[in-house]
UniProtKB/TrEMBL annotation:
InterPro entries: Initiator_Rep_WH1 (IPR000525), WH-like_DNA-bd_sf (IPR036388), WH_DNA-bd_sf (IPR036390)
Tree of life domain: Bacteria
Domain named Initiator Rep protein WH1: residues: 17-170
Single GO MF annotation: DNA-directed DNA polymerase activity
Chain segments annotated as transmembrane: none
Protein name (record): Initiator Rep protein WH1 domain-containing protein
Similarity field: Belongs to the initiator RepB protein family.
Start and end residues of each stretch annotated as Disordered: 265-317
Biased composition regions of type Basic residues, renumbered to the chain: 280-293
Amino acid sequence: MATDINGKELKHNDLAIYGNKLNEMTFPKFSSIEMNLFWAVASQISNQDRRGGIYDYQEITFTFKELAKLTGLKSRSANRLAKYLKEIMDKLDKAALISETDVKGQPYKFYKFNIFPGFEADAETKKLTVQINPKALPYLTKLTENFTVYDLEKFFGLKSKYSKTLYRIISQYPKFGWVTQDREKLCELLGVPKSYRSSKHFNLFTSRILDPAVEELKPIFKGLKYELITEKKGKGRPTITAIKFTFQRFKPPYTSLTQKKELKEKDADAKNYNDSSKISKPKIKSDRKKKSNNKNNKSQNKPNESNGLNLLQDFMK
């Protein structure tokens, strides 16, 4: 089991939950297994926070056995695994979160930092310790809005690294049923080779990368398909500017069966409360009758003016 800095055992993950900003990260030359490793560590932090677990986010430690199970690493000796982890860490060190604000009339802003700045793999203890950048915590903990959630088991089960990235992108928009990505931005996020990005060879991108990725994701996202958005400039041929993905809208996975049950119970309680608090409106007809009766009662209690006048005339005689 993974442990926090104090050696406390952490519960196993079931979901990946993180701020949408992390979906803008690029993973240059990452393999499918290397992506598994990054998101296994990242999701461990958010899952423990969601369950009220660790709050000392300085580092997390995994056993080699757990890493192999989570990421799909093949069985190998502790020394070989430690050296392989070192190669992966060199790549993870390049997976930085970058944000740039360049708006006319506003001050230019730019920041870049690594989510996990430090790693330690020990073949003797057969453990990997990962340090966490405090600046990354707003994207991994205390999330209440603008976050992505998906099933980790399904993510780890995908074979293609392109499928994994597209899976994360689509999972950000469960209630929309569609998402449009700028052509260059999508190629950058997927890590598409530069030779496939030009208009001349773009068919290689669709046939060798996009089509297989969409096909692998169809069992997860019902009705998934894509269309190329083109724009014509001048007399030349239309240029592909974006790719639009459409799919059936879906509900994000619950954090646990317990929470699903609690949500249903809350919905039932709210419905019962609303039903009991309903006040039936009185019928208009009965209101009119009541007003009519009140009017009659008032007329009966009101002194008869003609009788009073007759009495006064008799008195004056």
